[in-house]
Amino acid sequence: MAKAPTKRDEILDTAERMIRTMGYNGFSTRGIAKVVGIKAASVHYYFPTKSDIGVAVTERYTERFLERLGDPTAFEGAHKKAIEHYVDAFRDALVQDGNVCLCAVLGAETGGLPTEVGGHARIFFERNLAWLKKALAASSRVSAKEAQAQAIHILAAVEGAMILSTSLGNDTVFNSVAGSLAQIADD
Amino acid sequence: MAKAPTKRDEILDTAERMIRTMGYNGFSTRGIAKVVGIKAASVHYYFPTKSDIGVAVTERYTERFLERLGDPTAFEGAHKKAIEHYVDAFRDALVQDGNVCLCAVLGAETGGLPTEVGGHARIFFERNLAWLKKALAASSRVSAKEAQAQAIHILAAVEGAMILSTSLGNDTVFNSVAGSLAQIADD
DNA sequence: GCGCACCTACCTAGTGTTAGGTAGATACGG
DNA sequence: CCGTATCTACCTAACACTAGGTAGGTGCGC
Asked: Does the CB of B25 fall within 7 Å of any strand C atom?
């Protein structure tokens, strides 16, 4: 049977959902506590400070996302497949969770973040670019330099598409961008 | 000579800068007051509520941005020029102001915004898509449908690129995306 | 002496965070 | 197998502070 989520997990789940809809400065320990059914002070039993929550959420999000991406070298000669696989991971995040990518939100408000939280958002982007670069290099004939440029382009477009989608309240926007990105492929 | 900015303008300037670095929930009337050299209560003399500031900032930002874009039909047969001109407008916003696009930030935290503010961010995106669609249709042989898809793609990529740039602390990221977008052109 | 552009002084509600406490489970020495 | 100790998972109460917002006053240029 599915193990019941611990209170710690529930805090992380709630915090992630809240950050992804309202931003880091849009959630409070009391807000989380109310949802989880606990007192605000008890949240600090699990996470000493608010930024500890931010860091934990971001780390878990990054780990899960890269796990979901899998092996970047698994797309030998299938450039388009690689791009589609990558974009699908974000589509899941947007459609299943109904929210923008956590790090799109954090990245947008970088200047208002505790430095450690901003740093972990940055790590998400760096690891994503590394994954993409590897996947693109393994699946197509592009040069390393081109792979780098394509990686940045794809990541930027996908993150922007999620923001546009939610602001316009229109999920087709994301799919439109997904279609355009697939056309980058050389196969 | 350059007319001295009014206190009202200074409030708007400061609010814009703060929102663009820290998000809507990352600035306060007290914070603005301190920068402008005024008491917090006096901010309410110009703008009754905080969301009035948000709306005014967003409206002014949108108006200025579209003015800077100019006439979308001015790029007859110069597809690439049209795209470059559009991307340059955002580069100015990023490099000159040193900040992400206001509406990228607002769009990212849509769920934590007063509805009127979120609505005005949305208007920014809608008017940008309309401008782009017109510019692309006038400058290239693409169908209306393709122009729409390209418009969404370009806007998403540019907004995402700005977020990536600030989060990674690396301005070359934006220029890389700019280069990739120029390649969309059919001339 | 009217009204614009500000002020002082205050309010209520919420913020993150801490101190100190407690009921119940677990570990262990005699 | 019993009592003492320690740990877990919370709690209440309060801290110092900031949030947005308001009522009413003051100075000053016209």
From this structure: no
Task: Give yes or no for CB of A95 within 7 Å of strand C.
Answer: no
CATH number given to A49-182: 1.10.357.10
Q: Which of B108, B157, B173 sits opposite A108 (nearest CB)?
A: B108
Q: How far apart are alpha carbons B184 and A119 in whole angstroms?
A: 33
B55-182 to CATH, choices 1.10.1660.10, 3.10.20.600, 1.10.357.10, 2.60.40.10: 1.10.357.10
For residue A24, list chain B residues with Cβ-Cβ distance below 8 A: 23
Pick out residues 51-70 of chain A having their CB under 7 A from any atom of nucleic acid strand C. 51
Chain D, protein-covered positions (CB within 7 A): 9-14, 18-24
Check: CB of residue B110 under 8 Å from CB of residue A108: no
**Which of A108, A149, A173 minimises the CB distance to B100?**
A108
- Give mean pLDDT, residues B5-27: 94
Where exactly are the structural domains of chain A? 49-182
pTM metric for this prediction? 0.94
Model confidence at B95, in pLDDT bands (50, 70, 90)?
Answer: confident
Residues 6+ apart with CB under 8 A from B171: B94, B95, B165
Those residues of chain A that have pLDDT short of 50 are 1-2
